[in-house]
Specification:
430 residues, alpha/beta, Rossmann fold, GMP Synthetase, Chain A, domain 3, 9-stranded mixed β-sheet, 4-stranded antiparallel β-sheet, 12 helices, globular, binds zinc ion
């Protein structure tokens, strides 16, 4: 392999991250066998594994895929505590965000937490965060796995940590001005929140481009390269992607490295499969499909073959950075995050790419089915604070959208700051 391997010193845990692929595959089979054995302690999975037979020291992937059914979010919600391993009292209870339905309770044992925080630390390190960084964490803590996971991971990494919670603009402005006695050099959060802060920080007397931040680690949402370009230019930092999902553990599942060509999935902790969304059958490497994950270390919530609802593809080629763990493409979209107008699928990420390419368009927007028959794509967007919208703004956007989608479009351009900014993940479809 002709990879100009980066020196081992750039890894958080070189032994594991650069493990030769055959050893990594053997480790995965051993961990998979343990994961299935452990899952039998949970009534829900015990029933599903009734006909599976004995598991030895190693479980080959093919047998696992043939014998273990996929688990969807509705099934997990319906199973409730029957999906928890019996005999382990959880040390921490968190919950899903409820973005797509009622919350699901997520239990963690002490062992789960230790392992999870170490994986988040590795993820942040791979993104470029270092122990000598002073890190802002403008993320709600509460039962949100993103906040708790990042808090634990940053503590593990040894950074100076300033957890700002669900931040307001003045609070972040204060932190950037050095209110805590340090110049913050890194920030961890939601990309949509960063785009909002970019607009509002000047009103609090802070120029985001002049901030001391050098690196940002963002995730928990599908975000486009266009959004990344806006965040990087606006804050003058390097914006890196990471992947996580609450049901599996939270953040810390996959991380973008300096090569910025996909996200390394931590194969010593998770098994990833890409399946056809309709048939549930595995697709070949490189083909897009639904990401299915099996955590290999969880004690209390031993999920098997969980459908994430996120679309990705597996990149089989080795990475330039020298890490051997296979990469996922950046999450292109959440499969249920689609607006259907007269039979045409409209994805927020595609509209975002188009809108963010236009300088006078602000960062805030949402889509809806509008018109009496809900047959029109309604696009509500804000003009940017810095550049006024041209007189033919609505027509410009309508035309651009109609070039890609053959649907009726109704565009409403709102003044800067007038659209609702609910805290947490951005709701692009309303
Ligand atoms: Zn890499």
């Amino acid at each position: 392999m002709d990879s100009p391997a980066v020196t081992r010193a750039v890894c958080y845990d070189a032994e594991v991250e650069c493990m030769p692929p055959p050893r990594l595959a053997a480790l995965r089979e051993a961990l998979l066998a343990r994961a299935v054995t452990r899952a039998r302690r949970a009534p829900f999975f015990r029933e599903r594994l009734a006909g599976f037979g004995e598991v030895g020291d190693r479980l080959p992937l093919a047998r696992f895929q043939e014998g273990v059914p996929l688990t969807g979010k509705q099934e997990l919600r319906a199973a409730g505590a029957r999906a928890w391993a019996e005999g382990d009292a959880p040390a921490l209870l968190l919950a899903t965000s409820g973005t797509t339905g009622s919350r699901i309770t997520l239990p963690y044992s002490g062992g789960d937490l230790r392992r999870w925080h170490a994986l988040v630390a590795r993820t942040l390190w791979t993104n470029g965060v270092r122990a000598d960084d002073a890190v802002l964490l403008p993320v709600p803590l509460g039962v949100f796995t993103g906040g708790q996971g990042m808090f634990g991971g940053l503590r593990q990494l040894g950074c100076r940590l300033i957890p700002l919670g669900a931040t307001t603009t003045p609070a972040l402005a204060d932190a950037l001005r050095g209110a805590f006695g340090v110049a913050p050099t890194a920030i961890v959060g939601l990309p949509s929140h960063m785009l909002r802060l970019l607009e509002t920080l000047p009103t609090a007397g802070v120029d985001p481009a002049g901030s001391p931040l050098r690196i940002g680690s963002f995730g928990a949402e599908a975000w486009t390269e266009a959004a990344r370009a806006r965040i990087e230019a606006g804050f003058g930092l390097v914006a890196m992607d990471s992947y996580g999902i609450g049901e599996i553990c939270g953040p810390g599942i996959a991380a973008e490295c300096a090569a910025r060509d996909g996200l390394h999935l931590w194969e010593d902790a998770f098994l990833a499969e890409i399946v056809d969304r309709t048939s549930g059958e595995p697709v070949p490497d490189g083909a897009p499909g639904e990401l299915v994950l099996t955590p290999l270390f969880r004690e209390v919530l031993p999920l098997l073959r969980y459908r994430t609802g996120d679309e990705a593809a597996m990149i089989p080629e080795p990475c330039r950075c020298g890490r051997t763990h296979r990469r996922l493409t950046r999450i292109a979209r959440r499969l249920d995050d689609v607006l259907v107008i007269t039979g045409v699928n409209i994805e927020p990420a595609d509209i975002e790419r188009l809108l963010y390419g236009i300088p006078w368009v602000g960062n805030e927007f949402y889509l809806e089915a509008s018109g009496e028959n809900r047959d029109t794509l309604g696009i509500h967007l804000e003009a940017s604070e810095r550049a006024p919208a041209p007189p033919d703004a609505e027509a410009q956007i309508s035309e651009a959208v109609r070039r890609d989608y053959h649907v009726r479009v109704a565009v409403a351009v709102h003044p800067f700051g007038s659209l609702d900014r609910a805290p947490g993940k951005a709701r692009r479809i309303r």
